[in-house]
Amino acid sequence: MTHTTQRGSLRVVGLGPGADALLTDSVRSAIAGATDAFGYFPYVERLSGLGHLTLHGSDNREELGRARSALNLAAQGRKVLMLSSGDPGVFAMASAVFEVLDEAGPEELARWVAVDIDVQPGITAMLAAAARLGAPLGHDFCAINLSDNLKPAAVIERRIQLAAQADFAMAFYNPCSKSRPEGFERALRVLRQECEPQRLICFARNVSHADETLRVVQLQDVQAEMADMRTVVIVGNSQTRQVGRYVYTPRSYGVAGSR
Amino acid sequence: MTHTTQRGSLRVVGLGPGADALLTDSVRSAIAGATDAFGYFPYVERLSGLGHLTLHGSDNREELGRARSALNLAAQGRKVLMLSSGDPGVFAMASAVFEVLDEAGPEELARWVAVDIDVQPGITAMLAAAARLGAPLGHDFCAINLSDNLKPAAVIERRIQLAAQADFAMAFYNPCSKSRPEGFERALRVLRQECEPQRLICFARNVSHADETLRVVQLQDVQAEMADMRTVVIVGNSQTRQVGRYVYTPRSYGVAGSR
């Protein structure tokens, strides 16, 4: 039985990088109160033990269709979750939902207007990785998605170049994938032009999972194969240092007392 | 009674932007298992209802002394928390702890070497703000601390200029403070040189608190007074748009079908 008189909702929630201990209470409550969950197959799989939820898994790159289906079901009065890993607002499903809303025709808009939409943040991969490494993002930094699926490679290269000139630490999402293996290699070429050979590059793979690996390498020793689709790469700024097993970027920059 | 034979710990934890619902389970567990909590007065105040904790509040700008005191207490076998708001790795206490470790003399190092140190991520202000606004950070973005307390104003201005040329969305932390009111004004001057007058600027104040306010303004209508020390400012990129009450940045950029 669908409750067509009840106002439906779409909660776009972030599941964090993997470990349940990194969920927020807010996201736990949203999961407990939902009737349906949409998302990329491995994310809905994380909720497969919860009997109260109808799971709607879909493939990667079907983000817009997934968002439309979720809005349609919410319009029928269901309490719908849209699952992202990490934070839904960082290279994840939140933008896709708003793109679909923005491109909706009058008929869809009339159907969706009553849906209560909200976004609930989660621990995004770069911040989970940074915490495990120490504090490599403790000064100004940027986040760049290296996939050229939705933007030209030239834009990515130019952004890395300008970010290096600004001396931002950088977090690279989607450094490469099976279908697009060359993203991280292209980024490396730019880094080698712009940065000193000793620049610290951190590879954090499957952060918070049982098989998590962390690796810190100087730029001159980096190999393209060190990053795969489950890796977040963090590039230090020119001041990033190691102390013991930790990597950190000092808070101060270019002033007396800073390094 | 202090347990000098037990290995002490220092957990650098993020409390999120304010609402308890944005705490992670991991941070809740760390709080439950701790004996002492250090931090800026308002952050330790958040834990004042917990009888099992000895609270050690200190003033702003006393980060290094606070980190040293916490390490010293942990070296005595205590379970010590270092509290940050948001995420400890983003313009917060994690870097200060590693700076103190890095600058330690042999005597301090000998005392601190047995302390189990870790960092536990939290929801940082810009991602909490982005979720409330929609998805303004859904494409490549950067985070810049506008305080010139620890870096020269010229470095900040240059970074904003390069970030605008890279067409990053930007999150500004500490846009101004009582002692340094001019940070956001300086940033505005650079934005007005580099960006079109219609650029969307979001002001998110006291996110997740009862008195949260959100405001979205075109660059041409921004006044410096719109930001204070409790505000995170999010600057859209050239593609950032509004749909209904939401602000979002499309995932695609500079390719057919993107705006």
UniProtKB/TrEMBL annotation, chains A, B:
CDD domains: Precorrin_3B_C17_MT (cd11646). Pathway: Cofactor biosynthesis; adenosylcobalamin biosynthesis. Keywords: Cobalamin biosynthesis, Methyltransferase, S-adenosyl-L-methionine, Transferase. Transmembrane segments: none annotated. This is Precorrin-3B C(17)-methyltransferase. It is an enzyme of class 2 (transferase). It comes from Comamonas suwonensis. InterPro entries: 4pyrrol_Mease, 4pyrrol_Methylase_sf, 4pyrrole_Mease_sub1, 4pyrrole_Mease_sub2, Cbl_synth_CobJ/CibH_dom, Precorrin_MeTrfase. PANTHER family: COBALT-FACTOR III C(17)-METHYLTRANSFERASE-RELATED. GO terms for biological process: cobalamin biosynthetic process; methylation. GO terms for molecular function: precorrin-3B C17-methyltransferase activity. Residues 12-222 form the Tetrapyrrole methylase domain. Its EC number is 2.1.1.131. NCBIfam families: cobJ_cbiH (TIGR01466).
